[in-house]
Amino acid sequence: xxxxxxxxxxxxxxxxxxxxxxxxxxxxxxxxxxxxxxxxxxxxxxxxxxxxxxxxxxxxxxxxxxxxxxxxxxxxxxxxxxxxxxxxxxxxxxxxxxxxxxxxxxxxxxxxxxxx
Length: 116
Hints:
The chain has two helices and two strands; from the N terminus they run ββαα.
């Protein structure tokens, strides 16, 4: 009588910060590192957020030139859009940074910037 080995569950190795929130709190995806419909949707959303940030930057550039004559409301509008875009891009950078493997042989978990 032969016994078949039990199928092994994929090991959870990845915690991904998603480019959206749930009730204002960060949302995460726990995966084994394979592409899933949710991770692919997150990739597409990150790409859209980066493209939107580039458009907003392009719109803001002439609005902050010395020759621009903007109202306070117009300046607040572009400042809000810049903050929204910067928040999205920083979230993407954090998410991607968390997914980078550590340097080989790096036993120290402290950040080099913390040592300055």
